[in-house]
Amino acid sequence: MGLPRVAVFSMGGTISSVDSGGKGVEPTLTGEALVSDVPEIAGVADVSAVSFRQAASGELGVGDLVELAAEIEGRIDGGAAGAVVTQGTDTIEETSFVLDLLVDRGAPVVVTGAMRNPTLPGADGPANLLAAIRVAVSDAARGLGTVVVLNDEIHAARFVRKTHTSNPATFRSDPVGPVGWISEDVPRVVVRPAGKHKVTLPENAQDRPVALYHIALGDDGRLLPEIEEKGYAGLVVEAMGGGHVPSVMVETLEELASKMPVMLASRTGGGEVLRSTYGFIGSETDLIERGLIHTGPLDGRKARLLLTLLLQSGAGREEIAATFDTWLEG
User: How confident is the model over 269-282, as pLDDT tens digits?
Assistant: First the structure.
């Protein structure tokens, strides 16, 4: 019996970068070059490499990920034991989350990258790629959905966040921590998140852009009327603390919420948005009464992506609210 098959999709980033004449590294290596640079992979899996995109991770869009999700499902349906996606780390928490929502298969989907590019001592790209492939062929990772593997840690896409600009241990998962790790080349999975969340898109899903608005001290909300005028279909507000905004902007938010889904998230990055603790004007209770929809434990970036996909799927306000309301129930 041969080695398990794994599809590796390269989308650029530090793991596939080379120095461009002293001007800094650029994502230029192909998927085939990535795999050939790590000879140990040949003893773990039968890899087919695909150069899906060659771009900095900030250039990727939701449309790219919809296309990638379909490619991944096709490879899995064709017999691949799992899939690995390599990309720049700037948007890994978002890419992995979208793939987790769209890929509806039991086989592992693993997203990885590198914090130290190939021109630096201790470049971590090869080790991360090898670890990701080990996880992709592991029975332990089946049914986990999409995970992020770097620094020998396994993180669930729904929890993972990039927390440091340059530290190789940048990826953290609140509040659960990694769901597993790699020890002596063996993936260990010790935590399995409850529930599964999938979004099914129609074949010709239309772009439904969603704005992300971060509330700061002294913000008067003068930019909020631009949201509708610029053609956005939804809005996620990253509010202060448990879900609070200055009172001067509540009427504008209420008006927007009568025209489009307006989501209430917390800018803190941890915990859940409150629902009924505070009652002052601009509090979470006040805003929810005015029509805003809480995002539960999802931060603004992930709430924006979930809302974008739900709108593309044709979901209305009630379905959107129910999805966020039951997020922790699966």
Answer: 899 999 999 999 99
List the domain range (segments joined by +) for residue 167. Answer: 5-189
Report the CATH number that the domain containing residue 109 is assigned in CATH.
Answer: 3.40.50.1170
Res. 105 pLDDT band, cuts 50 70 90: very high
The per-residue pLDDT for 18 is 56
HEC per residue, the chain: CCCCEEEEEECCCHHHEEECCCCCEEECCCHHHHHHCCHHHHHCCEEEEEECCCCCHHHCCHHHHHHHHHHHHHHHHCCCCEEEEECCHHHHHHHHHHHHHHCCCCCCEEEECCCCCCCCCCCCHHHHHHHHHHHHCCHHHCCCCEEEEECCEEEECCCEEECCCCCCCCEEECCCCCCEEEECCEEEECCCCCCCCCCCCCCCCCCCCEEEEECCCCCCCCCCHHHHHCCCCEEEEEEECCCECCHHHHHHHHHHHCCCCEEEEECCCCCCCCCCCCCCCCCHHHHHHCCCEECCCCCHHHHHHHHHHHHHHCCCHHHHHHHHHCHHHC
Residues assigned a catalytic role? 14
